[in-house]
Design a protein that fits this description.
heterodimer; A: 110 residues; mainly beta; seven-stranded mixed beta sheet; globular; B: mainly beta
């Protein structure tokens, strides 16, 4: 299985930049597409898709969110961070079954 | 508006069975593959199973293979998850989630249904 590793927590100040990383145990690129996706989850809510295939912004997601990376190293950037962004963020790969998620990074206020 | 509504959860004893349902609306259900994803209390997300639009392709996580069965009824716009030989570690909130036509990510999620396995 492809293992996705995220830091458990990240402390950030409002209006600053947050950089959340996700490292995979195997390359999740294929034919020029990164099969890496990002979700936001707030307490008591279902996850919400933010970024798909590495860097594509999902519908209705503000441009403060961006995704980058390739191969085994990926990053979700929030710039600038707003109070509404305090949540847990998950990466997910769909290069191979079983599709797997990272353990999540909880974004906290400094 | 796309809607996914799960039901069928509850408290069940270890070793027993339970069947979850997810009723879909707002899109042509028969055109999309569907997934079950779960989240144990206070834990992260775990993909459980996938079924293609016509049920030709089915995949499971190793943790549930042989115990869970995903199925669908396109005439009823309904996705199912039959869970047998339940264990305490199956306790979780179970989400049904829809990927786009060609993609391995999940753009729509239900609210989830809680399954608690305990004696």
């Amino acid at each position: 299985d492809i293992v996705l590793t995220q830091s458990p927590a990240l402390a950030v100040s409002l209006e600053q930049r947050a950089t959340i990383s996700c490292k995979t145990s195997q390359n999740v690129d294929n034919y020029g597409i990164s099969y890496m996706h990002w979700y936001q989850q707030k307490p008591g809510q279902q996850p919400k898709l933010l970024i798909y295939e590495g860097s594509n912004l999902a519908s209705g997601i503000p441009a403060r969110f961006s995704g980058s990376g390739s191969g085994t190293d990926f990053t979700l950037t929030i710039d600038p961070v707003e109070a509404d962004d305090i949540a847990t963020y998950y990466c997910q790969q769909s290069k191979d079954y079983p599709w797997t998620f990272g353990g999540g990074t909880k974004l906290e206020l400094k | 508006e796309v809607q996914l509504v799960e039901s069928g959860g509850g408290l069940v004893q270890p070793g027993r069975s339970l069947k979850l349902s997810c009723v879909a609306s707002g899109f042509t259900f028969s055109n999309y593959g569907m997934n079950w994803i779960r989240q144990a209390p206070g834990k992260g997300l775990e993909w459980v199973a996938y079924i293609s639009s016509g049920s030709s392709y089915i995949y499971y996580a190793e943790t549930v293979k042989g115990r869970f069965t995903i199925s669908r009824d396109n005439a009823k716009n309904t996705l199912y998850l039959q869970m047998t030989s339940l264990r305490s570690e199956d306790t979780a909130l179970y989400y049904c989630a829809r990927p786009p036509n060609y993609g391995g990510y999940f753009d729509y999620w239900g609210q989830g249904v809680m399954v608690t396995v305990s004696s």
